[in-house]
Amino acid sequence: MTLDRDSAFEQCWFPARDGLMLHARDYRRDAPGIPVICLPGLSRNARDFHQFASMISAQKEKPRRVLALDYRGRGRSDWDENKANYNLAVECEDVLTAMQVFDIARAIFIGTSRGGLILHLLAASRPELLEAVILNDIGPAIEAEGLREIATYLGRHSEPKDWNDAASILRATHGSTFPALTETDWHDMAVAIYAEKDGRLTSDFDPAIAAQLRALDLSQPLPELWPQFDAFTAKPLLAIRGEHSRLLSEATLREMARRHPAIRRCTARGQGHAPLLHKPDAFAAIADFLDTI
Length: 293
Prior knowledge:
Strand order of the largest sheet: 1-2-3-5-4-6-7-10-11
Number of helices: 10
CATH topology: Rossmann fold
Shape: globular
Number of domains: 1
Distance between the termini: 30 Å
């Protein structure tokens, strides 16, 4: 493992089972108690959780260790030459590898979008690893409209001139569903999504990942994960839905609550897919939830 220390976290590289080098951010490694593992969305990376992880790991009364992962092909993890490995099963194995490398036996998991789908697989196959679960704007049934929207904006080949331009592009693309975001939030999002490579700003993921999504036939019914979701019923569960989300419907959230009567629910006001977790309402709901674990 290679470490590059930062004031808030350690950057860590470790090999997957097939040898591909993966990256994670480790916040407050020495904090006691059950750690939090953050799993990002389809094309996103550990930087999405930076503000949230910094806040959770720095709480005075009960700081938490937070591990935020870059899946293969995203962020500072290596791109996979075998593009077929960009799938939930392989990424689930990478999460298991990370837990072994970082000596984490059980964790509180936060899964944003695709990260939540990975948690469905973990709940069904390795439930003993899950102390509690937070699903961020994802459930066992996904709306095709939301996937079409994601495929559309991932397919755009915008090259920002600078970081201010990157923030403006994101605001133009997502502003209608994220009225709660401030100028600072848009700039933070730009830093999370884009990376500077060869003197230009570019989206920080392997384009093959977006190509896979665009290749889906969204006119056909999408697979659902209700049997896997039922494995959460023995676990403390918080479900967060963006007020303007087009990926997670209110109807799906109601069915989740019917199947898991003890579920906690939070609506992230003024946000779409997927909510920023450090905004006040989402953060308060998560902090209250964590206090029960």
